[in-house]
Amino acid sequence: MLKAVLDTNVLINGVQDEASYSFRIIKAVIEGKITAVVNRQLQQENRLKTSELIKDQGYKEFLENYYYKTEFIKRYSHENVVEWDEEDNKLIAAALDGGAKFVVTEDRDLLFLGEHKGIRMVTPQEFWRYYQENEEGASSDWQDWMKNLIGK
């Protein structure tokens, strides 16, 4: 199963639109299709920021389901990869320690980094596309039918 670290901004942006890539990713974690990895520092940030910034009680309950489904790992890595925003290093540590291949974020500092030790920093849209193309199981019958119809 595909493992990823979701930045807090992804959780917050998911509340804005149920059709958003952020919301789809969170929902896929809840459904057990994607594994979200967190360490203590990231989990604390997630809970603190979302409780402060999200007012919709239904979405808060949705996030509680997300928190329940995350894979909690101990933090062993202490690399200083993002020197200009050291708080971002907890995301990379979670990915390294949890075996995640992606950090999903809207944070420009992390996106600028691009990749570190095989971990890709991607937007929710980029991650969702990768997930659909590579992990969502064999393409559905209708997707196969459409590909045949348009000749791809």
Automatic annotation (TrEMBL):
Ranges where the PIN domain occurs: 3-109
Superkingdom field: Bacteria
Protein name: Putative toxin-antitoxin system toxin component, PIN family
